[in-house]
Amino acid sequence: MADAVTSQTLADGQRTAVFKFTNISDGTGESGVTKIDVSALSTLPDGRSCTGVSIDKIWWQCNGMKVQILWEATADQFCIELGENQSGYHDYRVFGGLTNNAGSGKTGDVAFTTVGHTGGDTYTVIIECTKTFA
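Above: the chain's sequence. Below: its structure in token form.
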């Protein structure tokens, strides 16, 4: 079996994108699963493609497990961890958002890894991002 997961794009504008992710775990969990694929996001009117995002806001609820948010690269780079049996709202815009500091092999994508997951654990995560372009 596998965890029952959903990924939904709520908005994909010229500069801002909003995503909703859910997981109902069967105990399998997720490890480095791509959640935001920047190559799939809309382009600018001049045709430039999205090459990355900064995370501006996160709303979340984790029941029984933690969620690590990672910047994808040759070796994924830790961004932030959302706590077990916690919920919250963070607004990072005051300092320009959480920016991708991944090194070698940086893709611009965002991944999730669950920690401490067991059957019946859940998460819901909503992320608002500012898109960056080459």
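The mean pLDDT is 97.
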